[in-house]
């Protein structure tokens, strides 16, 4: 009974502390101010997550300059990689799914001295009402553990996951490909899957790295494969700073969507 009473007191204290956050303003070391206006119960957003938010952006005079709520179309982005202003990357990482918050973002965490688009003036402080709706699971590397690795004369390695009766990719035809690209340490540096936008390009004309021109030509529509591309068939000795290191072997999980 004593243990139960102590547990009950601890639980009550925890709940009270949690609830006391709502409605209070906090300021981070960077100068971002935020107020949690509604508390959710979902997962905490973290760097690298694809998050879906609703927002309304206002100037300090309370005039609205942008709103996903008014458009009826939530906004999604990858958190912590610079796809949005710094204040958003920092602020959304403070939220759990279901949280609503108001961010007051100083200009150095927003659009700075230049402003933006004739709408946001120089050195403008911005106010955003934000709701974290969802954290979407990103693409996962293909499971190739039971598949054979083949090597071409050029040094390209590839692993086919399946075979189809689809149209064969050929040079000078336009191919549509979904892909996710990884470094050897497993970190993903690019993904059409994450963007929801396959890549179209004419095959065999040097529009992509050599390993792609060669590797995609091995596939039929509907087939998936892993391409392991040595640096001389990728971005060479220099790489592609700051994303691709020098002499980097690249790993692409690809799916051929269409050939025209």
TrEMBL record:
It comes from Vicingus serpentipes. One of its GO terms (molecular function) is peptidyl-prolyl cis-trans isomerase activity. This is Peptidyl-prolyl cis-trans isomerase. Residues 48-136, 172-260 form the PPIase FKBP-type domain. Gene3D superfamilies: 3.10.50.40. Its EC number is 5.2.1.8. The lineage of its organism: Bacteria, Pseudomonadati, Bacteroidota, Flavobacteriia, Flavobacteriales. Keywords: Isomerase, Rotamase. Pfam families: FKBP_C. It catalyses: [protein]-peptidylproline (omega=180) = [protein]-peptidylproline (omega=0). Belongs to the FKBP-type PPIase family. SUPFAM superfamilies: FKBP-like (SSF54534). InterPro entries: PPIase_dom_sf (IPR046357), PPIase_FKBP_dom (IPR001179).
């Amino acid at each position: 009974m004593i243990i139960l009473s102590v547990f009950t007191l601890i639980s009550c204290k925890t709940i009270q502390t949690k609830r006391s956050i709502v409605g209070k303003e906090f300021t981070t070391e960077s100068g971002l101010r935020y107020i949690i206006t509604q508390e959710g119960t979902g997962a905490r957003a973290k760097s690298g997550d694809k998050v879906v938010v609703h927002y309304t952006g206002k100037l300090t005079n309370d005039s609205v300059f942008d709103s996903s709520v008014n458009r009826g179309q939530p906004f999604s982005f990858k958190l912590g990689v610079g796809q949005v202003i710094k204040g958003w990357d920092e602020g959304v990482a403070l939220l759990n799914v279901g949280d609503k918050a108001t961010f007051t973002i100083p200009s150095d965490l927003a659009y700075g001295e230049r402003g933006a688009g004739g709408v946001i003036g120089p050195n403008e402080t911005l106010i955003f009402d934000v709701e974290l709706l969802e954290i979407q699971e990103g693409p996962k590397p293909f499971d190739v553990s039971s598949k054979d690795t083949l090597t071409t004369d050029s040094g390209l390695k590839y692993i086919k996951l399946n075979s189809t009766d689809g149209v064969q990719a050929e040079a000078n035809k336009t191919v549509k490909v979904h892909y996710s690209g990884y470094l050897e340490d497993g970190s993903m540096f690019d993904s059409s899957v994450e963007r929801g936008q396959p890549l179209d390009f004419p095959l065999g004309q040097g529009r992509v790295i050599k390993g792609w021109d060669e590797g995609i030509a091995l596939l039929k529509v509907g087939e998936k494969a892993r391409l392991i591309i040595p640096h001389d068939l990728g971005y060479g000795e220099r790489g592609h700073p700051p994303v691709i290191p020098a002499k980097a072997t690249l790993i692409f999980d690809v799916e051929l969507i269409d050939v025209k």
